[in-house]
């Protein structure tokens, strides 16, 4: 019995990835939103098929909606992994230079569509530098004693209000229990 080797599909071209990213950015609320009466599985599947049609307009290879969805997932995952590597390398002992290459323009566009804002800052070189310089500033800031006293007074006032509210809640609960006991 002969084994038939399965041919791999050609990689997505840059033009295909650009169209994919553009179309996903236009439809991201529906594609990644929660299911509801208006956002159904069938609607999401139809959207991926329409995205595939637009990708096919610039492609030499016929792509399906499912292929486009999977390519989006894999590419998004790769971008997240680069961000994690960038963060890990930057936080390593000795800090210093990043050995992770910068994101390509298409990866930057995909990064802008990622759901996590914290990941956003980690992805770009400037965002990474801003994030780490802000951490340094936090440690370097010195707060005056008068400011600390003022902040502590504010915190105590808030805590006092919270305790007053809690006392009132407990009193209402106690009254409710007394009424419940009388009914029995």
From TrEMBL:
Gene3D superfamilies: Homeodomain-like (1.10.10.60). Residues 153-180 form a coiled coil. Residues 8-84 form the Myb/SANT-like DNA-binding domain. Keywords: Coiled coil. It holds the Pfam family Myb_DNA-bind_5. Signal peptide: none annotated. Residues 79-101 are annotated as: Disordered. Self-associates forming complexes of several hundred monomers. This is Regulatory protein zeste.
